[in-house]
TrEMBL record:
Residues 23-277 form the EAL domain. It comes from the Bacteria. This is GGDEF and EAL domain-containing protein. GO terms for molecular function: cyclic-guanylate-specific phosphodiesterase activity. It comes from Lichenibacterium minor.
Length: 284
C-alpha cells in the first residue's frame, strides 16, 4: 500500500511543505501590508439589544484581500500573526481605523458602541491603555463608545499583568468584553475580578441550543451565572429565529449573528440601519 511504498510519507511531507509555504508567504505579505494597509479593511457586524430591538453597537472585524491569493479569513491570519509578534501593530491599525470610522458616524448622527478584538500580546504591551486613549482623544470620540474584546485564554496568560492593564482601561471608561466565553479555561473567581461589562457566549454553544437540550441547559447556566456577576450577556452566532427565541427566553441581553446581519462594509452598515429604522416606524 501507499504507506509501505513510502508514498504516504512523501505526500504527507509535500502537504506540510505547501502549508508552510503558504504561512510563510502570508506572514511576509501581511507584514509589508501593515506598512501601507490598502488591502486591509474593517467590516462591522450589528449587535441587537433584545429589550428594545435596536442595534446598539457593532463588532469591527478585520478583512484582508491578498493581491494574488484573494480573501484570507482572519481565522487563518490572526493566529499566524499572533505567533509572530505582529499583533500589536495590527491592533493599532484596527483601533485607529475603527475609531476614525466612529468619528465619521458620530458626525453623521450615528451614535454606536464599536467593539474591537484585541490579542493577548496587547495586554503585555507597555502603555497599551495610554495609546488607546490617545487615539480616542485625537478623533474626539468618548472613551465609553469603545469596547475591547479579549478572550479568557488571553487574560489567563499572565493573569496579574492582564488584570492591571484591564483595570487601567476600565478606569478610563473604556468598555471591556470577554469574547468566545466558554471555550477557554477560566475560573469563576477570576472572572469575578475582571472589570468587564460584557460576556459574549461563543457561537459553538449557541448554534445547537434549539435542538440539543444539553446545550440549552449549559447556556442557561452560563447566562444566569454571568448575569449574577453583573455582566451583560451577548449570544454570538444567532442564525435562525428558533435560536433567537431560545436565547431570548433564557435572558440573553443582546445578540449578534447572521439572523440579523453579516459583517457589513461601513456603507452597507448605514443602509442596514436606515432600513431597520424604517421597519420600526412602519410597525409603530
Ligand atoms: P470573533 O471575535 O468571535 O468574531 C465573530 C466571528 O463569528 C466573525 O468571524 C463573524 O463573522 C462570525 N459570525 C458572526 N455571526 C455569525 C453567524 O451567525 N454564523 C456564523 N457561522 N458565523 C458568524 P470572522 O470575521 O471570520 O472572524 C473570526 C475570528 O477572527 C474572530 O472571532 C476574532 O477572534 C478574529 N478576528 C477578526 N478580526 C479581528 C481583529 O481585527 N483583531 C483580532 N485580534 N482578531 C480578529
Ligand atoms: Mg470578537
Ligand atoms: Mg475573538
Ligand atoms: Mg467570539
Amino acid at each position: 500500500d501507499a504507506r509501505s511504498s513510502g508514498r504516504f510519507f512523501h505526500v504527507h511531507s509535500a502537504q506540510i511543505d505547501t502549508a508552510f509555504q503558504r504561512s510563510f508567504t502570508l506572514l511576509r505579505d501581511f507584514e509589508s501590508t501593515l506598512q501601507s494597509p490598502s488591502d486591509f479593511r474593517l467590516v462591522y457586524q450589528p449587535r441587537v439589544d433584545l429589550a428594545s430591538g435596536r442595534c446598539v453597537g457593532a463588532e469591527a472585524l478585520m478583512r484582508w484581500t491578498h493581491p494574488t491569493l484573494g480573501p484570507i479569513p482572519p481565522g487563518e491570519f490572526i493566529p499566524l500573526i499572533e505567533r509572530m509578534s505582529l499583533a500589536n501593530p495590527t491592533t493599532a491599525w484596527v483601533i485607529e481605523t475603527a475609531v476614525a470610522q466612529m468619528a465619521r458616524w458620530r458626525e453623521a448622527g450615528l451614535d454606536l458602541t464599536v467593539s474591537v478584538n484585541i490579542s493577548s500580546a496587547n495586554l503585555h504591551e507597555s502603555d497599551f491603555a495610554g495609546s488607546v486613549k490617545a487615539v480616542l482623544a485625537r478623533h474626539d470620540v468618548p472613551h465609553t463608545a469603545l469596547e475591547l474584546e479579549v478572550t479568557e485564554t488571553a487574560v489567563m496568560n499572565d493573569a496579574e499583568l492582564a488584570l492591571t492593564q484591564l483595570k487601567e482601561l476600565a478606569d478610563a471608561g473604556i468598555r471591556l468584553a470577554i469574547d468566545d466565553f466558554g471555550t477557554g479555561y477560566s475560573s469563576l473567581s477570576y472572572l469575578q475580578r475582571l472589570p468587564v461589562q460584557v460576556v459574549k457566549i461563543d457561537r459553538s454553544f449557541i448554534t445547537e441550543i434549539d435542538t440539543d437540550p444539553r446545550q440549552f441547559s449549559l447556556v442557561s447556566m452560563m447566562v444566569s451565572m454571568t448575569k449574577h456577576l453583573g455582566h451583560r450577556v451577548v449570544a454570538e452566532g444567532v442564525e435562525t429565529r428558533a435560536v433567537l427565541d431560545q436565547v431570548r427566553s433564557i435572558g440573553c441581553d443582546e445578540v449578534q449573528g447572521y439572523f440579523f446581519a453579516r459583517p457589513l462594509s461601513p456603507q452597507d452598515f448605514v443602509r442596514w440601519m436606515e432600513q431597520r429604522v424604517e421597519m420600526e416606524c412602519a410597525v409603530a
